[in-house]
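#struct-pred
JK: can someone run the complex with adenosine monophosphate? inputs below
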Amino acid sequence: METEIDMIKFEAALKKVLAKADILGIQELPVDKTIGYVLAENIRAGYDMPLFNKSAMDGYAVHSNDLKIVPVRLKCVATIRAGESYSFRRNKRTVKKGECVKIMTGSPLPRGTDSVVMVEYTEEDNNGWIRILKRVNPGENVCFKGEDVKNGSVVLGKGMLIRGPEVAIISSLGITKVKVFRKPTVTILNTGDEIVEPGNKLTYGKIYNSNGHMLLSLFRDMGIKARYLGIAKDEEKILTKKIMEGFNYDIFLISGGVSMGDYDLIPAVLGKCGVKKMFHKIKIKPGKPVFFGIKENRLIFGIPGNPVSTYLVFLILIKPVIDKMMGKKPDLNIRRGILKEDFKQIPGRKHFVPAKVIDKLDNPADKLDNPADKRGLLKVYPVRGYHGSADIFSLSQANAFMIIDENVSLLRRNRWVNLIRW
Ligand code: AMP
Ligand code: MG
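RT: done, structure tokens with the ligand placed:
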């Protein structure tokens, strides 16, 4: 039988888990579907950007030499819409001294002009004459060919996370498909004789399945459509059958049945199914009974069924694993804040406590006294009345877990505390 001594520290557990999480492979996707993925190739520009000198403003393309003394009258010889080209339309005619061309943002700059006067600094006279009221420098209000990107240069590097701007950049290069790192496939099994699917009748002693739906939603939020295997009763035969269905996925999460109760059968059943145990139990609170094992490169997690534990384990173990598999840096993003209330605990395990974190600058009153050195300071309030791993209501009032080390019994207010925000 396992004892408390088998428990490993959180840092060691995370290390073990990440050591088994390898980048999965490469997949080609249409650009529109790549947000949230990591690039598996360098994206190079196939041409200069912009591809031609173009106007940055609505106004008049002029030669700046004509504007030495203003106001000055110039003859407007054409209007160029975006997408049109004066030089092309007029058979390579050059704009002459004393002439100008009405131009829109994004239109190619006509030959013979070197700058653009904003329409706001012009007036229309009669018969196509324009009064220019303000001088411009050569090149003013012009975006020059190649000023953003040179032909052949790497615009986005392998390993970059694709967000909205990256989709725009890739599209602006005319590229429709890109290579990204594949996201893991995931499956979820809920276990417990007492667990009932929402939508069904609840009889005495039963509870609804909450964490299965939370997990499915959290994965969906990461762009992963997890396969849901439903709820299995705490019986070895049933569990074995269900568990055998979950091994074809990169990550298999089994909720419930990993603690010390008579019907917590998961670790034993997993062992019989050929799963190699990496650890069972971590020195954390909540979430202590976490099980982690592997079978043929697949990662198998047994997660305690209480929803706060489930959420915490997702945040501090599962999400980093997924990030690493899909090419992201697995970063818990631990920050520091100032604890605003004394916090007492029984020492023993690293304690993740639901807390409300307030950014100093979120509060308008704080801006008034303007202590520049306190900018960005985080204030941390443990959620009042939090009573343990089943308390999803307290969890819902939190936006962070503050992290209290295992040997601490009292942390005074106004001391630094580490936290993970979500
Ligand atoms: P277990 O991890 O099976 O020992 O369960 C620990 C506690 O979490 C028990 O009170 C269970 O009823 C509860 N629990 C287990 N699975 C779920 C679930 N899917 N949704 C909500 N609570 C659960
Ligand atoms: Mg159970």
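RT: quick notes.
The radius of gyration is 31 Å.
The first strand starts at residue 26 and ends at 30.
JK: thanks, will look after standup
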